[in-house]
Protein backbone atom coordinates (compact mmCIF):
# COMPACT_ATOMS: atom_id res chain seq x y z
CA UNK A 1 0.00 0.00 0.00
CA UNK A 2 2.88 2.39 0.71
CA UNK A 3 4.13 2.41 -2.89
CA UNK A 4 0.60 2.83 -4.22
CA UNK A 5 0.01 5.69 -1.76
CA UNK A 6 3.24 7.44 -2.78
CA UNK A 7 2.34 7.14 -6.44
CA UNK A 8 -1.16 8.43 -5.68
CA UNK A 9 0.32 11.47 -3.90
CA UNK A 10 2.68 12.31 -6.77
CA UNK A 11 -0.10 12.00 -9.34
CA UNK A 12 -2.90 13.77 -7.47
CA UNK A 13 -1.49 15.71 -4.51
CA UNK A 14 2.03 16.86 -5.49
CA UNK A 15 1.53 20.00 -3.38
CA UNK A 16 1.75 17.85 -0.24
CA UNK A 17 5.32 16.89 -1.11
CA UNK A 18 6.39 20.54 -1.24
CA UNK A 19 4.49 22.19 1.60
CA UNK A 20 3.96 21.74 5.33
CA UNK A 21 0.47 20.65 6.34
CA UNK A 22 -1.69 19.77 9.33
CA UNK A 23 -2.72 16.14 9.64
CA UNK A 24 -5.93 15.75 11.66
CA UNK A 25 -5.27 12.82 13.97
CA UNK A 26 -7.88 11.40 16.36
CA UNK A 27 -5.75 8.42 17.30
CA UNK A 28 -8.07 6.05 15.44
CA UNK A 29 -7.13 3.51 12.78
CA UNK A 30 -7.49 5.74 9.72
CA UNK A 31 -5.57 8.79 10.93
CA UNK A 32 -2.83 6.68 12.54
CA UNK A 33 -2.23 4.79 9.29
CA UNK A 34 -2.22 8.06 7.34
CA UNK A 35 0.35 9.48 9.78
CA UNK A 36 2.70 6.54 9.14
CA UNK A 37 2.22 6.72 5.38
CA UNK A 38 3.03 10.44 5.34
CA UNK A 39 6.06 9.94 7.58
CA UNK A 40 7.42 7.13 5.43
CA UNK A 41 6.81 9.28 2.35
CA UNK A 42 9.04 11.95 3.93
CA UNK A 43 6.34 14.62 4.03
CA UNK A 44 6.48 17.65 6.30
CA UNK A 45 3.45 17.69 8.60
CA UNK A 46 2.17 18.53 12.07
CA UNK A 47 -0.28 16.28 13.91
CA UNK A 48 -3.38 18.16 15.13
CA UNK A 49 -5.54 16.53 17.80
CA UNK A 50 -8.85 17.69 19.31
CA UNK A 51 -9.87 16.61 22.81
CA UNK A 52 -13.64 17.08 22.86
CA UNK A 53 -13.92 16.02 26.53
CA UNK A 54 -16.86 13.76 25.76
CA UNK A 55 -15.54 10.42 27.05
CA UNK A 56 -13.71 11.32 30.25
CA UNK A 57 -10.56 9.29 30.76
CA UNK A 58 -10.89 7.78 27.28
CA UNK A 59 -10.63 11.24 25.67
CA UNK A 60 -7.54 11.99 27.72
CA UNK A 61 -6.15 8.60 26.71
CA UNK A 62 -6.60 9.51 23.04
CA UNK A 63 -4.71 12.74 23.58
CA UNK A 64 -1.84 10.95 25.33
CA UNK A 65 -1.69 8.35 22.55
CA UNK A 66 -1.44 11.01 19.80
CA UNK A 67 1.33 12.83 21.67
CA UNK A 68 3.25 9.55 21.96
CA UNK A 69 2.60 8.87 18.27
CA UNK A 70 4.12 12.25 17.43
CA UNK A 71 7.23 11.32 19.45
CA UNK A 72 7.57 7.99 17.64
CA UNK A 73 7.24 9.65 14.25
CA UNK A 74 9.39 12.62 15.15
CA UNK A 75 6.61 15.04 14.26
CA UNK A 76 5.25 17.96 16.32
CA UNK A 77 1.78 17.64 17.85
CA UNK A 78 -0.75 20.42 18.44
CA UNK A 79 -3.59 19.72 20.89
CA UNK A 80 -6.67 21.70 21.85
CA UNK A 81 -9.52 21.07 24.29
CA UNK A 82 -13.18 21.90 23.76
CA UNK A 83 -16.22 22.29 25.99
CA UNK A 84 -18.24 20.40 23.42
CA UNK A 85 -21.41 19.97 25.48
CA UNK A 86 -21.38 23.67 26.33
CA UNK A 87 -21.25 24.39 22.60
CA UNK A 88 -24.11 21.94 22.00
CA UNK A 89 -26.36 23.75 24.48
CA UNK A 90 -25.42 27.28 23.46
CA UNK A 91 -25.71 26.65 19.71
CA UNK A 92 -28.50 24.04 19.84
CA UNK A 93 -26.76 21.57 17.55
CA UNK A 94 -26.05 17.85 17.79
CA UNK A 95 -22.91 16.54 19.46
CA UNK A 96 -21.51 15.42 16.12
CA UNK A 97 -22.22 18.79 14.49
CA UNK A 98 -20.68 20.63 17.46
CA UNK A 99 -17.52 18.53 17.21
CA UNK A 100 -17.28 19.16 13.49
CA UNK A 101 -17.75 22.92 13.79
CA UNK A 102 -15.32 23.23 16.68
CA UNK A 103 -12.51 21.26 15.07
CA UNK A 104 -12.75 22.97 11.69
CA UNK A 105 -12.80 26.40 13.35
CA UNK A 106 -9.59 25.43 15.11
CA UNK A 107 -8.01 24.01 11.95
CA UNK A 108 -8.90 27.19 10.05
CA UNK A 109 -7.22 29.33 12.69
CA UNK A 110 -4.08 27.21 12.56
CA UNK A 111 -3.87 27.43 8.77
CA UNK A 112 -3.96 31.21 8.95
CA UNK A 113 -0.53 31.02 10.56
CA UNK A 114 2.38 31.37 8.13
CA UNK A 115 4.01 28.14 7.01
CA UNK A 116 0.98 25.84 7.16
CA UNK A 117 -0.63 25.46 3.76
CA UNK A 118 -3.02 22.50 3.90
CA UNK A 119 -5.15 20.32 6.15
CA UNK A 120 -5.02 16.58 5.45
CA UNK A 121 -7.77 14.29 6.75
CA UNK A 122 -8.12 10.50 6.75
CA UNK A 123 -11.51 10.15 5.05
CA UNK A 124 -11.66 6.92 3.05
CA UNK A 125 -13.94 5.11 0.58
CA UNK A 126 -16.32 3.80 3.24
CA UNK A 127 -16.80 7.34 4.55
CA UNK A 128 -17.77 8.26 1.00
CA UNK A 129 -20.40 5.52 0.90
CA UNK A 130 -21.80 6.50 4.30
CA UNK A 131 -22.05 10.16 3.23
CA UNK A 132 -23.79 9.11 0.01
CA UNK A 133 -26.37 7.09 1.95
CA UNK A 134 -26.94 9.83 4.54
CA UNK A 135 -27.59 12.39 1.81
CA UNK A 136 -29.77 9.94 -0.09
CA UNK A 137 -31.89 9.30 3.01
CA UNK A 138 -32.40 13.02 3.60
CA UNK A 139 -33.19 13.92 0.01
CA UNK A 140 -30.62 15.67 -2.12
CA UNK A 141 -29.69 16.89 -5.57
CA UNK A 142 -26.83 15.42 -7.56
CA UNK A 143 -24.32 17.42 -5.50
CA UNK A 144 -25.11 15.26 -2.47
CA UNK A 145 -24.60 12.06 -4.42
CA UNK A 146 -21.13 12.70 -5.81
CA UNK A 147 -19.37 11.87 -2.55
CA UNK A 148 -16.67 13.63 -0.59
CA UNK A 149 -14.26 15.57 -2.85
CA UNK A 150 -10.57 14.71 -2.69
CA UNK A 151 -9.73 18.40 -2.46
CA UNK A 152 -11.75 21.32 -1.11
CA UNK A 153 -10.01 24.65 -0.69
CA UNK A 154 -7.01 23.91 1.57
CA UNK A 155 -8.28 20.45 2.58
CA UNK A 156 -6.83 17.27 1.04
CA UNK A 157 -8.15 13.71 1.49
CA UNK A 158 -5.57 11.28 0.04
CA UNK A 159 -7.14 8.09 1.50
CA UNK A 160 -10.48 8.41 -0.30
CA UNK A 161 -9.55 5.75 -2.85
CA UNK A 162 -8.90 3.12 -0.15
CA UNK A 163 -11.58 1.04 1.60
CA UNK A 164 -11.72 0.46 5.35
CA UNK A 165 -10.87 -3.22 4.77
CA UNK A 166 -7.73 -2.26 2.83
CA UNK A 167 -6.67 0.18 5.54
CA UNK A 168 -7.30 -2.34 8.33
CA UNK A 169 -5.43 -5.12 6.55
CA UNK A 170 -2.35 -2.95 5.95
CA UNK A 171 -2.36 -1.62 9.53
CA UNK A 172 -2.45 -5.18 10.90
CA UNK A 173 0.28 -6.25 8.49
CA UNK A 174 2.48 -3.41 9.81
CA UNK A 175 1.58 -4.21 13.42
CA UNK A 176 0.29 -0.68 14.06
CA UNK A 177 -1.58 0.30 17.19
CA UNK A 178 -4.49 2.71 17.38
CA UNK A 179 -7.30 3.80 19.69
CA UNK A 180 -10.88 2.55 19.47
CA UNK A 181 -13.66 5.07 20.14
CA UNK A 182 -16.51 3.23 21.86
CA UNK A 183 -19.01 5.84 20.66
CA UNK A 184 -18.45 4.55 17.10
CA UNK A 185 -20.49 1.49 18.11
CA UNK A 186 -23.48 3.56 19.29
CA UNK A 187 -26.20 3.19 16.64
CA UNK A 188 -28.19 6.14 17.95
CA UNK A 189 -26.01 8.16 15.58
CA UNK A 190 -27.18 7.92 11.96
CA UNK A 191 -23.70 7.47 10.49
CA UNK A 192 -22.91 4.65 12.89
CA UNK A 193 -26.22 2.93 12.13
CA UNK A 194 -25.46 3.08 8.41
CA UNK A 195 -21.87 1.89 8.97
CA UNK A 196 -22.75 -1.03 11.24
CA UNK A 197 -26.13 -2.20 9.95
CA UNK A 198 -26.61 -1.11 6.34
CA UNK A 199 -23.17 -1.05 4.70
CA UNK A 200 -22.32 -4.71 5.63
CA UNK A 201 -25.55 -5.88 3.98
CA UNK A 202 -24.84 -3.84 0.86
CA UNK A 203 -21.39 -5.41 0.60
CA UNK A 204 -23.02 -8.84 0.82
CA UNK A 205 -25.01 -8.09 -2.35
CA UNK A 206 -21.96 -8.23 -4.59
CA UNK A 207 -18.30 -9.12 -3.96
CA UNK A 208 -17.22 -6.02 -5.90
CA UNK A 209 -19.77 -3.68 -4.34
CA UNK A 210 -17.26 -1.01 -3.31
CA UNK A 211 -15.59 -1.01 -6.72
CA UNK A 212 -19.01 -0.68 -8.38
CA UNK A 213 -19.93 2.12 -6.01
CA UNK A 214 -16.74 4.03 -6.83
CA UNK A 215 -17.49 3.58 -10.53
CA UNK A 216 -21.00 4.93 -10.01
CA UNK A 217 -19.60 7.95 -8.18
CA UNK A 218 -17.36 8.57 -11.16
CA UNK A 219 -20.37 8.53 -13.51
CA UNK A 220 -22.30 10.88 -11.22
CA UNK A 221 -19.38 13.32 -11.07
CA UNK A 222 -19.17 13.37 -14.86
CA UNK A 223 -22.93 13.95 -15.07
CA UNK A 224 -22.59 16.75 -12.55
CA UNK A 225 -19.85 18.33 -14.65
CA UNK A 226 -22.06 18.20 -17.74
CA UNK A 227 -24.87 19.77 -15.72
CA UNK A 228 -22.63 22.55 -14.41
CA UNK A 229 -21.39 23.32 -17.91
CA UNK A 230 -24.97 23.68 -19.12
CA UNK A 231 -25.93 25.84 -16.14
CA UNK A 232 -22.92 28.08 -16.73
CA UNK A 233 -23.96 28.47 -20.36
CA UNK A 234 -27.47 29.49 -19.27
CA UNK A 235 -26.11 31.89 -16.63
CA UNK A 236 -23.90 33.62 -19.20
CA UNK A 237 -26.93 34.05 -21.45
CA UNK A 238 -29.53 35.10 -18.87
CA UNK A 239 -27.68 36.72 -15.95
CA UNK A 240 -26.93 40.29 -17.00
CA UNK A 241 -24.67 42.35 -14.75
CA UNK A 242 -25.98 45.84 -14.02
CA UNK A 243 -24.00 47.83 -11.46
CA UNK A 244 -23.95 45.67 -8.33
CA UNK A 245 -26.87 43.47 -9.34
CA UNK A 246 -27.76 40.64 -11.67
CA UNK A 247 -30.82 41.08 -13.88
CA UNK A 248 -32.59 37.98 -15.22
CA UNK A 249 -35.40 37.85 -17.77
CA UNK A 250 -38.51 36.15 -16.34
CA UNK A 251 -39.81 35.14 -19.78
CA UNK A 252 -36.49 33.45 -20.62
CA UNK A 253 -36.46 31.61 -17.29
CA UNK A 254 -39.95 30.28 -17.97
CA UNK A 255 -38.75 28.68 -21.20
CA UNK A 256 -36.33 26.41 -19.33
CA UNK A 257 -37.30 22.75 -18.92
CA UNK A 258 -37.40 21.16 -16.42
CA UNK A 259 -38.06 24.52 -14.75
CA UNK A 260 -37.50 23.53 -11.11
CA UNK A 261 -34.31 21.68 -12.00
CA UNK A 262 -32.88 24.74 -13.73
CA UNK A 263 -33.96 27.07 -10.93
CA UNK A 264 -32.28 24.78 -8.40
CA UNK A 265 -29.04 24.74 -10.36
CA UNK A 266 -29.01 28.45 -11.20
CA UNK A 267 -29.74 29.79 -7.73
CA UNK A 268 -28.36 27.16 -5.31
CA UNK A 269 -24.96 28.89 -5.06
CA UNK A 270 -26.74 31.97 -3.70
CA UNK A 271 -28.23 29.98 -0.83
CA UNK A 272 -31.83 29.69 -2.05
CA UNK A 273 -33.56 26.47 -1.01
CA UNK A 274 -37.31 27.23 -1.16
CA UNK A 275 -37.72 26.45 -4.85
CA UNK A 276 -41.52 26.71 -4.88
CA UNK A 277 -41.17 30.30 -3.68
CA UNK A 278 -38.91 31.10 -6.63
CA UNK A 279 -41.32 29.41 -9.06
CA UNK A 280 -44.16 31.52 -7.66
CA UNK A 281 -41.98 34.64 -7.85
CA UNK A 282 -41.93 34.35 -11.64
CA UNK A 283 -45.67 35.20 -11.76
CA UNK A 284 -45.77 37.47 -8.71
CA UNK A 285 -46.48 41.20 -8.75
CA UNK A 286 -43.58 43.59 -9.17
CA UNK A 287 -41.91 44.27 -5.82
CA UNK A 288 -42.32 40.74 -4.43
CA UNK A 289 -39.08 39.21 -3.15
CA UNK A 290 -37.63 36.07 -1.57
CA UNK A 291 -34.52 35.86 0.59
CA UNK A 292 -31.63 33.55 1.35
CA UNK A 293 -29.15 34.12 4.15
CA UNK A 294 -27.05 36.54 2.08
CA UNK A 295 -29.08 37.39 -1.03
CA UNK A 296 -32.43 38.78 -2.08
CA UNK A 297 -34.27 37.94 -5.30
CA UNK A 298 -36.71 40.66 -6.37
CA UNK A 299 -39.44 40.59 -9.02
CA UNK A 300 -39.07 43.87 -10.91
CA UNK A 301 -41.54 44.08 -13.80
CA UNK A 302 -40.28 41.60 -16.43
CA UNK A 303 -37.10 40.64 -14.59
CA UNK A 304 -35.76 39.09 -11.43
CA UNK A 305 -33.04 41.11 -9.77
CA UNK A 306 -30.49 39.26 -7.67
CA UNK A 307 -28.40 41.19 -5.17
CA UNK A 308 -26.40 40.69 -2.03
CA UNK A 309 -28.26 41.88 1.04
CA UNK A 310 -26.79 45.05 2.51
CA UNK A 311 -27.59 46.85 5.72
CA UNK A 312 -29.22 50.20 5.11
CA UNK A 313 -26.64 52.93 5.65
CA UNK A 314 -27.75 55.40 8.32
CA UNK A 315 -24.53 57.38 8.64
CA UNK A 316 -24.26 61.02 7.61
CA UNK A 317 -20.89 62.09 6.15
CA UNK A 318 -19.82 65.73 6.33
CA UNK A 319 -17.91 67.81 3.77
CA UNK A 320 -16.28 71.04 4.93
CA UNK A 321 -16.10 74.24 2.85
CA UNK A 322 -13.38 74.55 0.22
CA UNK A 323 -12.02 72.30 -2.48
CA UNK A 324 -12.45 68.66 -1.49
CA UNK A 325 -12.15 65.06 -2.57
CA UNK A 326 -13.77 62.13 -0.75
CA UNK A 327 -13.64 58.42 -1.59
CA UNK A 328 -16.10 57.13 1.00
CA UNK A 329 -19.01 56.48 1.08
CA UNK A 330 -18.99 57.61 -2.55
CA UNK A 331 -16.31 59.26 -4.65
CA UNK A 332 -16.84 63.01 -5.04
CA UNK A 333 -14.53 65.87 -5.95
CA UNK A 334 -15.48 69.53 -5.47
CA UNK A 335 -13.58 72.61 -6.58
CA UNK A 336 -14.26 76.25 -7.28
CA UNK A 337 -14.22 77.08 -11.01
CA UNK A 338 -14.41 80.26 -13.03
CA UNK A 339 -17.11 79.20 -15.44
CA UNK A 340 -20.04 76.81 -15.72
CA UNK A 341 -20.12 74.07 -18.31
CA UNK A 342 -22.98 71.71 -19.10
CA UNK A 343 -24.38 69.88 -16.08
CA UNK A 344 -24.44 66.11 -16.58
CA UNK A 345 -25.27 63.07 -14.49
CA UNK A 346 -21.64 62.92 -13.32
CA UNK A 347 -20.73 66.58 -12.86
CA UNK A 348 -22.81 69.47 -11.60
CA UNK A 349 -22.29 73.22 -11.16
CA UNK A 350 -23.68 75.06 -8.15
CA UNK A 351 -24.00 78.58 -6.87
CA UNK A 352 -21.57 78.28 -3.97
CA UNK A 353 -23.23 81.07 -1.98
CA UNK A 354 -26.52 79.14 -1.79
CA UNK A 355 -24.87 76.31 0.13
CA UNK A 356 -24.75 75.87 3.89
CA UNK A 357 -21.69 74.10 5.26
CA UNK A 358 -20.84 71.49 6.12
CA UNK A 359 -22.47 69.71 3.20
CA UNK A 360 -23.61 66.18 4.01
CA UNK A 361 -23.84 62.90 2.13
CA UNK A 362 -26.50 60.40 3.22
CA UNK A 363 -28.88 57.74 1.94
CA UNK A 364 -32.39 58.79 0.93
CA UNK A 365 -35.24 58.41 3.41
CA UNK A 366 -39.00 58.19 3.18
CA UNK A 367 -40.50 61.69 2.87
CA UNK A 368 -37.48 63.22 1.12
CA UNK A 369 -38.25 65.71 -1.64
CA UNK A 370 -36.36 68.09 -3.93
CA UNK A 371 -36.91 70.63 -6.72
CA UNK A 372 -35.70 68.91 -9.92
CA UNK A 373 -33.62 71.22 -12.12
CA UNK A 374 -35.73 72.68 -14.91
CA UNK A 375 -39.07 71.90 -13.25
CA UNK A 376 -41.42 74.06 -11.23
CA UNK A 377 -42.30 72.92 -7.76
CA UNK A 378 -41.06 70.12 -5.58
CA UNK A 379 -41.21 66.36 -6.08
CA UNK A 380 -41.01 63.51 -3.62
CA UNK A 381 -38.01 61.27 -4.21
CA UNK A 382 -40.25 58.19 -4.06
CA UNK A 383 -42.27 59.60 -7.00
CA UNK A 384 -39.10 60.60 -8.85
CA UNK A 385 -37.68 57.08 -8.42
CA UNK A 386 -40.93 55.57 -9.69
CA UNK A 387 -40.94 57.82 -12.75
CA UNK A 388 -37.32 56.88 -13.41
CA UNK A 389 -38.28 53.19 -13.04
CA UNK A 390 -35.64 52.56 -10.40
CA UNK A 391 -35.71 49.09 -8.85
CA UNK A 392 -35.63 48.46 -5.10
CA UNK A 393 -31.88 47.90 -5.00
CA UNK A 394 -31.06 51.09 -6.90
CA UNK A 395 -33.20 53.02 -4.41
CA UNK A 396 -31.42 51.44 -1.47
CA UNK A 397 -28.01 52.35 -2.93
CA UNK A 398 -28.91 55.96 -3.79
CA UNK A 399 -26.82 58.67 -2.08
CA UNK A 400 -27.82 62.31 -1.65
CA UNK A 401 -25.72 65.46 -1.36
CA UNK A 402 -27.44 67.83 1.06
CA UNK A 403 -27.13 71.40 2.30
CA UNK A 404 -28.75 71.52 5.71
CA UNK A 405 -32.12 69.81 5.28
CA UNK A 406 -32.26 70.53 1.54
CA UNK A 407 -31.25 68.03 -1.11
CA UNK A 408 -28.66 69.53 -3.47
CA UNK A 409 -28.07 66.53 -5.73
CA UNK A 410 -29.57 63.10 -6.17
CA UNK A 411 -26.03 61.98 -6.85
CA UNK A 412 -25.49 60.74 -10.37
CA UNK A 413 -29.06 61.61 -11.43
CA UNK A 414 -30.56 65.09 -10.90
CA UNK A 415 -29.49 68.37 -9.30
CA UNK A 416 -31.86 70.62 -7.33
CA UNK A 417 -33.05 73.77 -9.06
CA UNK A 418 -32.56 75.92 -5.93
CA UNK A 419 -28.77 75.62 -6.15
CA UNK A 420 -28.25 76.19 -9.86
CA UNK A 421 -25.88 78.76 -11.33
CA UNK A 422 -27.66 81.96 -12.41
CA UNK A 423 -26.67 85.30 -13.94
CA UNK A 424 -26.16 86.73 -10.45
CA UNK A 425 -23.88 83.89 -9.29
CA UNK A 426 -20.51 85.15 -8.10
CA UNK A 427 -18.81 81.88 -7.08
CA UNK A 428 -19.25 78.57 -8.88
CA UNK A 429 -18.59 75.19 -7.30
CA UNK A 430 -18.28 72.12 -9.53
CA UNK A 431 -18.82 68.67 -7.99
CA UNK A 432 -17.89 65.54 -9.96
CA UNK A 433 -18.85 61.93 -9.30
CA UNK A 434 -15.62 59.96 -9.43
From TrEMBL:
Entry similarity comment: Belongs to the tRNA(Ile)-lysidine synthase family.
Keywords annotated in UniProt: ATP-binding, Cytoplasm, Ligase, Nucleotide-binding, tRNA processing
Alphabetized SMART domains for the sequence: TilS_C
Chain residues that bind ATP: 26-31
Its EC number(s): 6.3.4.19
CDD domains, alphabetized: TilS_N
Family annotation (InterPro entries): Lysidine-tRNA-synth_C, Rossmann-like_a/b/a_fold, TilS/TtcA_N, tRNA_Ile_lys_synt, tRNA_Ile_lys_synt_N
Cell location: Cytoplasm
Free-text domain note: The N-terminal region contains the highly conserved SGGXDS motif, predicted to be a P-loop motif involved in ATP binding.
UniProt protein name: tRNA(Ile)-lysidine synthase
Species the sequence originates in: Maribacter flavus
Limits of the Lysidine-tRNA(Ile) synthetase C-terminal domain: 359-431
Function comment: Ligates lysine onto the cytidine present at position 34 of the AUA codon-specific tRNA(Ile) that contains the anticodon CAU, in an ATP-dependent manner. Cytidine is converted to lysidine, thus changing the amino acid specificity of the tRNA from methionine to isoleucine.
MF GO annotations: tRNA(Ile)-lysidine synthase activity
Highest taxon of source: Bacteria
Database matches in PANTHER family: TRNA(ILE)-LYSIDINE SYNTHASE-RELATED
Catalysed reaction equations from the record: cytidine(34) in tRNA(Ile2) + L-lysine + ATP = lysidine(34) in tRNA(Ile2) + AMP + diphosphate + H(+)
Amino acid sequence: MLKDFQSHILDNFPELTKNKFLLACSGGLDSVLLSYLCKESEMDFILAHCNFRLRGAASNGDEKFVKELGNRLGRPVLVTHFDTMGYVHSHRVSVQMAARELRYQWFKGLMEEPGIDYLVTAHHADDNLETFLINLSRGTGIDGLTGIPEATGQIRRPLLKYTRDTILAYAKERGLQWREDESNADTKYLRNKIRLEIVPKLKELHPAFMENFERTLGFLKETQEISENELERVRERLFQRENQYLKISVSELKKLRPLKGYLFGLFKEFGFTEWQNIVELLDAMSGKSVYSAEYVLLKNRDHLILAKKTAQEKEVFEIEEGDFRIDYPIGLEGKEVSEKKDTTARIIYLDKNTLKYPLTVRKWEKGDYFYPLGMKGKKKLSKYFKDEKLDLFSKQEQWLLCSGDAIVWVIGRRVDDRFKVTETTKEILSIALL
